[in-house]
Amino acid sequence: METANAATVKRKVLLKGLDCANCALKIENGVQKIEGVRSCSVNYVKQTMIIELNSTHEEEIMGFVRKKVNSLEPDIKFISGIKGTVPKLSAHSHNEASHGELVVKSKPLNHEDSYNTSHNHSHDDSKDNVIDDSHGHGHDHGESGVKTMILRLVASIVVGATGMIFNLNGIIGFSLFIIAYLIIGGDILLRAVKNIIRGQVFDEYFLMSIATIGAFVIGEYPEGVAVMLFYQVGELFQSIAVNRSRKSISSLLDLRPDFANVKIGDETKQVNPEEVRVGERIIVRPGEKVPLDGKVIDGHSAMDTSALTGESVPREVASGDDVLSGFININGVLTIEVSKTFGESTVAKILDLVENASSNKAETEKFITKFARYYTPVVVIIAVLLATIPPLLFSGATFSDWLYRALVFLVISCPCALVVSIPLGFFGGIGAASKNGVLVKGSNYLEGLNNVKYVVFDKTGTLTKGAFKVKAIVSASDWNQEHILLYAAYAETYSSHPIALSIKEAYGFDLDEHRITDYNEISGHGIQVTFENSSVLAGNEKLMQSEEISFVKPTEVGTIVHVAINHKYAGYIVIADEVKDDSATAIRSLKQMGVKKIIMLTGDNKAVGEAIGRSLEVDEVHAELLPQHKVEELEKLDAKKLPKEKIIFVGDGINDTPVLARADIGVAMGGLGSDAAIEAADIVIMTDEPSKLAAAMQVAKKTRNIVWQNIVFALLVKGLFLLLGAFGIATMWEAVIGDVGVSLIAVLNAMRVLKIKPEIVRTS
Fold first, then answer.
1. What parts of the sequence cross the membrane (predicted)?
2. Coil, helix or strand for 302?
3. Annotated catalytic residue, options 458, 577, 652, 656
């Protein structure tokens, strides 16, 4: 079905009702085996599946995918909508392909459209356009599901307690315990039977069914009921915790606007943001979210940008300023001219990046996936051996005793704690990073930040503001500084070069073109002009030398514009790029976090580059580089590092695309609203602050700590109970409490990721 070089598309599917990590794992593994499917990633937290598949047979493959999901989990609703946009070819990092290889990549899918054709953005499940016809057991306990489960728990306890309190023996007692068992565990038994028929044997339903039925076989009726009851209580609490976590993550990214006030003549009409076209004007009142990207054409206000940038200080905007969707208007009324449709807006891109981040799984997640695949069958085999071999080998060993130990062994073996909490931890980490103004495109990149030992910065626009300013005016004759700036500004009247613009900005007055004549731009040297009958020369050393004018060698570092008036040297102007306010903080923080070497690459001249490097205390500076030379410097560094060490390149995301692609992790600085930055980088810092990189690394380290706390805790407790069960010390009651308790604690611990707040110490 699949041709060698077939184009691929991405499809997003909503798996409504999926709230089980084991179920997500089965679906992911099953779909990946379908011919024509390049990759599949299931996010049980968001109940979504992202599939990359052969575009030639797209609908046919999606039919197979639907059948596979229905066969694996028939109670889950498969809701598929429109497909992703046409894929782009882009050279990306060797995380995805070998150096220089072209990788097929789809543009991000729209957050809602992929599975909601009704354009309802309220996220109200009751308004979904798909009828819910599932009645089987699931892990998704909604409000009505919680009430139903509580009633089942109470009924089971009452019936089972009746049998215990009155000590009813014989058929009556047995019948009461069977009724209590079926009330609380009938759905588990039914699901286990269905899964066995479909060839899915080793899952939690099978484990709980075989363990509790075994308890009845050996006459431990109360224990069989109690184990199933504890299991269901644990599942209920775990589901509530996961749903709470899901809502917490969603609240972190609560950027989606509910409406837009379109201005029509003297009136406004409230419409869906997706209906607004480019060029239309919208009104944003105090307290409302800006629904679409645009430019303010009337009004002024303070904007809360914290949802996008993590910054608490409001941003003042007025007529002529650009605003982005997701900003919240604080006080004034603004009229905004829309510059992008909703699908191309900043909010849509941010939501999509975070939604689809689960497609790129961390190595820890991949390990646990493989671990869970083999762990449960191995434990079941050991349990069978534990029940059968000792009674055959040891005299006095009874089959019922060792069968009970084997059942305890089975109860504790479920890997839910790991399979649930680890993806939840990484997804929460991505949400926490987003809240702090950093978009991470996958948990693999978030995990990779823990191994960063080399950070390579671009200079202009990354460590510096990328805006040239006049830093000094040095007079070398009778001319004063004001006159030197005046003549230089008029010499640059017609130039749009950044250097010329900085001189005219420093002058600060309107330029009257009628005051100049004989304008002559000398390529590679500067400008010659007549200003009110005075001959003016403004340019570099080469201009002074060619005109045989004696000039002063500057001691300052920066771009120098020499000025001569009537063939007599007047002085020079020093122009330099400004270092960002928190660049020094960023460098210091990265070194404190264990980064071995910080390097700055720049196309600027050596003197300027080295001066900025010294002021920021970077370890190495490589200047006067073209983009291909920057790649070469990165490859030299890559050859020296250890295999597990990572190199980050931080650039402005526009002219640094080749280096961003070549680095282990490419970080786009100041990428808010920049299509080029979002497309090229693995991580996008949504503000112009280099210190956000250190903040992202702090989030990554704390996320890893919490994830590994769960791994170690779950394995230790389960290992302990497996040993206690094997030696007959632990009862089945204790085993099930241990199992659900570990899962619940791991989920609650994973939720701590959402509260991560990076601590970056600012320098004065």
1. 149-166, 172-190, 374-394, 406-427, 707-729
2. strand
3. 458
**Residue 698 predicted with pLDDT over 90:** yes
What's the average model confidence in pLDDT over 676-703? Answer: 85
Q: Amino acid identity of 742? A: V
Beta bridge partners of 329: 303
Which residue has better confidence, 11 or 95? 11
**How far apart, in whole angstroms, are the C-alpha atoms of residue 706 and residue 578?**
40
Distance CA 14, CA 79 (A): 5
Helix (H) or strand (E) holding 378: helix 363-393
Which pLDDT belongs to residue 354?
Answer: 65
The span from the CA of 540 to the CA of 559, in Å, is: 9
Helices (H), 469-582: 481-491, 498-507, 541-546
Between 605 and 99, residue with greater pLDDT: 605
- CA 572/CA 566 separation, integer angstroms: 15
Handedness of CA 161, 164, 165, 171 (dihedral sign): positive
Helix (H, G, I), strand (E, B) or coil at 418: helix
Domains of the chain: 8-127 (3.30.70.100), 143-249+358-425+702-755 (no CATH), 277-340 (2.70.150.10), 437-457+581-694 (3.40.50.1000), 465-578 (3.40.1110.10)
Pairing of strands 315-317, 526-531: unpaired
Bridge partners, 516 (sequence order)? 531
Decide: 752 and 706 in contact? Cβ < 8 Å: yes
Strands 8-16 and 48-54: antiparallel
Q: Collect all residues with Cβ–Cβ distance below 8 Å to 319 and sequence separation of at least 6.
A: 296, 297, 298, 299, 300
Task: Select from 432, 518, 503, 434 the least CA-distant residue to 472.
Answer: 503
- Return the number of other C-beta atoms located less than 10 Å from residue 243's C-beta: 17
Which strands, in side-by-side order, build the sheet including 8-16? 37-43, 48-54, 8-16, 77-80
Written as one letter, the residue type at 513 is: E
Whether the CB-CB separation of 353 and 441 falls below 8 Å is answered with: yes
Spatial separation of the C-alpha atoms in residues 298 and 336, rounded to whole Å: 7
Give kind and range of the element (H or E) at residue 346. helix 346-355
Q: Which residue shows structure tokens 């991560």?
A: 756
> Is it the case that residue 528 has pLDDT exceeding 90?
yes
> Which range, of 259-263, 356-360, 618-622, 661-665, averages the lowest pLDDT?
356-360
- pLDDT tens string 260-276: 999 998 889 999 998 99
**Cα–Cα–Cα angle for 709, 685, 9, rounded to 5 degrees:** 85
Do the beta carbons of residue 710 and residue 422 sit within 8 Å?
A: yes
What's the average model confidence in pLDDT over 86-90? 34
- What is the amino acid identity at position 227? V
The answer to whether residue 458 is catalytic is: yes
Q: Decide if 622 contacts 602 (C-beta within 8 A).
A: yes
Residues 416 and 433: their CA atoms lie apart, in Å, by: 26
Residue 131 has a pLDDT of 30
Would you list the DSSP string of 65-104? HHHHHHHH-TTSEEEE-PPPPPPEEEE--TTTSSTT-EEE
Most confident of 20-29, 88-97, 138-147, 263-272: 263-272
List the Cα angle 49/657/462 in 5-degree steps. Answer: 105
| Of 664, 608, 652, nearest in space to 627 by CA | 652
pLDDT number for residue 474: 93
β-pairing, 322-323 with 464-475?
unpaired
- Residues 6 or more apart whose Cβ sits within 8 Å of residue 562: 526, 537, 538, 539, 540, 541, 543, 544, 551, 569, 571, 572
